[in-house]
């Protein structure tokens, strides 16, 4: 991604996700809990087959995306760390925000820089009977200010790669209570080519776990938990590519432009899977505590 002014970067990313709304709903919907992140596949679970229907594959993807959040909840101790006031930073269409509110009773502020996503998140919250439990906030995570803090925790599910990490942690230091947590599920850099594959498709800037730890430490946070789930998430890319191929093979209503975009997506999914298997990217869960 070409170097841009920081505010231009925020705007470009917001526009990118605004433009993807309908595509996200089609692939990961219908909702209300729509997730835009990888899935978690324990050794005992088999992903959908490449020759399954698009609907069967989509159902499996959604199941394993929810599985990733349940795994995150287990390793982060969600019953006592993510059951109070929670910031869901980079909330997408709000699937995680609804998850923390429904499953753990959290009061969630869902932070997004994609203006079109905010009413979608709040609409899904109303659909789930979560008025007052989930509210959307449109802002730049690097300039985060909230009036109803302090918060018990902040969660970022495959969103922190878009942030200026030192600036983000510095802002969090003002809104997270002492002893509170910053919980991050992210794709981390292990070699330059892996970073290129991830960044060029998703418009983000991956970093190493050490980069995160240094930025957090400078803002008064300590890395207390780190879990590697690269192997357990790799099948997501096989399923994602299989869904795209199934749609290309069977949906005759696609326009030429849509077909071209889906072919690009297919190639990107295959490249991500190759980097996962080769060790070029690491999927990890980090938890930081405010001192």
From TrEMBL:
Residues 86-180 form the Methyltransferase domain. The keyword Transferase applies. It comes from the Bacteria. Keywords: Methyltransferase, Transferase. This is Methyltransferase. InterPro entries: Erg6_SMT_methyltransf, Methyltransf_25, SAM-dependent_MTases_sf. GO terms for molecular function: methyltransferase activity. It comes from Lentzea guizhouensis. GO terms for biological process: methylation.
